[in-house]
Design brief:
single chain; mainly alpha; Citrate Synthase, domain 1; 2 domains; three-stranded antiparallel sheet; two-stranded antiparallel sheet; 48% helix; 5% strand; globular; binds carboxymethyl coenzyme *A
Length: 452
């Protein structure tokens, strides 16, 4: 390098005409050609890569990003996460403030409308949702058809998909009025479907919604109420459930949000798209992790056995469920709040005996090099199961308790996708590495491989 000219790093931004241009210059070493790609909001457009070609017949360059590790699929204004700093905000409001000061229904309004409601708006919103908590009697019959030990998530996926057959107006997805109505219906009916699925598993009669109770109180009544006695939800448990609902309401572009956007991009009705999102949530790597985390704590069995379990995790034999996150590389801020709620519930219901095992797992993991190096911290699902169990929920209900509040987030993501003029039907590309053309062989021409 010429000693008189400053190195690239020595150049001040303002002196450097390229840096000032908000663009990325890429040189294709196969052809020696350079391309200037505009940078907007810290990203380049993947379609701008298509101009990079070997010759005019070439399809053009693509980016390869299995499981979307570094691909923004949308522009969103709903939820913000800074995974390194452990920050989560809905519409700009820190999750800690919402958990302390808001209610689930108010937070759901915020997610869907972008602003906190006024007193009149909140009253109207709450009235509409409680007006739509009943489900058609035919859905009840349909739920009755499930086997007594059917997993409630399977029942919920099916029942929500079935709602599309009752509300034909839901197809009118570009009508703001129709979207609003389906939103009331879906947020209103999710607790009812969840509770009816649970009561079915016990062979107990369904308890109908009670609009005099709040959103979490009504759910507790439908789950645990018995005939003849007026059920009064305990305010501590009702509050704990409401806080958990706030924490679970949205989480930007996770697997199920991406699913509702992807399925919804075909312009199917919101019930079908939400059913797909619930299915995505059911998986043990996503919302099913709270159930799996509790199974794991049971399997560990005692504090003394934690070190051996951690050894198995490090050997790659199993996973520490409720740990790790694609985005959080710091303590999940929801897990911190949940730990506090857990103690409020334990003070009332007695300490969950599995808590000591969970705390020991966390203590060892936070000090162990394996977890520290990989930045694996407890996520939202590590402690929720302990709270739900202490509140009397069976394990199979845990992912259902995640799906109920996430419905508002899914619908906010769905609506944002529909109204975004840049969004089209989701259709990723692939890199095909399979066979080139080959010709059909009749069955007598095909030979078993030796030893098969
Ligand atoms: N236990 C042990 N090792 C883990 C764990 C875990 N829970 N999570 C990640 N790792 C290891 C993983 O084996 C890999 O190691 P290596 O680099 O040696 O191959 C490294 O950490 C990076 O993990 P990854 O699988 O590449 O990370 P990912 O971003 O693809 O997966 C995850 C994220 C949440 C699926 C994963 O951490 C996991 O499976 N956790 C357990 C399930 C769980 O708790 N899920 C709930 C997520 S939060 C609620 C929600 O949003 O649904």
């Amino acid at each position: 390098m010429d000693s008189a000219s400053p190195s690239a790093t020595q150049l001040k931004k303002s002196d450097d005409p390229v840096a000032a241009r908000q663009s990325l210059t890429v040189t294709d070493n196969r052809t020696g050609k350079s391309y200037e790609l505009p940078i907007t909001n810290g990203a380049i457009r993947a379609s701008d890569l298509r101009q990079i070609k070997l010759d005019p017949a070439d399809f053009g360059m693509m980016s390869y990003d299995p499981s979307f590790n570094n691909t923004a699929s949308c522009i969103s204004r709903v939820t913000y996460i800074d995974g390194d700093a452990g920050i989560l905000r809905y519409r700009g409001y820190p999750i800690e403030e919402l958990a302390e000061k808001s209610t689930y229904l108010e937070t759901a309004y915020l997610l869907l409308h972008g602003e906190l409601p006024t007193a009149t708006q909140l009253k109207d919103w709450t009235n509409h949702i409680s007006h739509h908590t009943f489900i058609h009697e035919s859905i009840k019959k349909f739920l009755d058809g499930f086997h007594y030990d059917a997993h409630p998530m399977g029942m919920m996926i099916s029942a929500v998909a079935a709602l599309s057959t009752f509300y034909h107006d839901a197809k009118d997805i570009f009508s703001a009025e129709s979207r609003q109505l389906q939103t009331y219906r879906m947020i209103g009916k999710m607790p009812t479907i969840a509770a009816f699925s649970y009561r079915h598993s016990l062979g107990m009669p369904f308890v109908y919604p009670d609009s005099e109770l709040g959103y979490p109180g009504n759910l507790l009544n439908m789950l645990f109420g018995t005939t003849g006695v007026r059920y009064r939800p305990n305010p501590t448990l009702e509050h704990a459930l409401d806080v958990l609902f706030i924490l679970h309401a949205d989480h930007e572009q996770n697997c199920s949000a991406n699913t509702i956007r992807g399925v919804g991009s075909s312009h199917v009705d919101p019930y079908s798209a939400t059913a797909a999102a619930i299915a995505a949530l059911y998986g043990p790597l996503h919302g099913g992790a709270n159930e799996e985390a509790l199974h794991m704590l049971h399997e560990i069995g005692s504090v003394q056995k934690v070190p051996d379990f951690i050894r198995r995790v490090k050997a790659g034999e199993t996973k520490l469920m409720g740990f790790g996150h694609r985005v959080y590389k710091n303590y999940d801020p929801r897990a911190r709040i949940i730990k506090r709620v857990a103690y409020e519930v334990f003070d009332l219901m007695g300490k969950n005996p599995l808590l000591e095992i969970a705390l020991e797992c966390e203590r060892i993991a936070l000090e162990d090099d394996y977890f520290v190096k990989r930045k694996l911290y407890p996520n939202v699902d590590f402690y929720t199961g302990l709270i739900y169990q202490s509140m009397g929920f069976p394990m199979s209900m845990f992912p259902v308790l995640f799906a109920i509040p996430r419905t508002s987030g899914w619908l906010a993501q769905w609506q944002e996708m529909l109204l975004d003029p840049e969004q089209k039907i989701a259709r990723p590309r692939q890199i095909y590495l399979g066979y080139d053309t080959r010709h059909y062989q009749t069955i007598d021409q095909r030979k078993d491989a030796p030893g098969a």
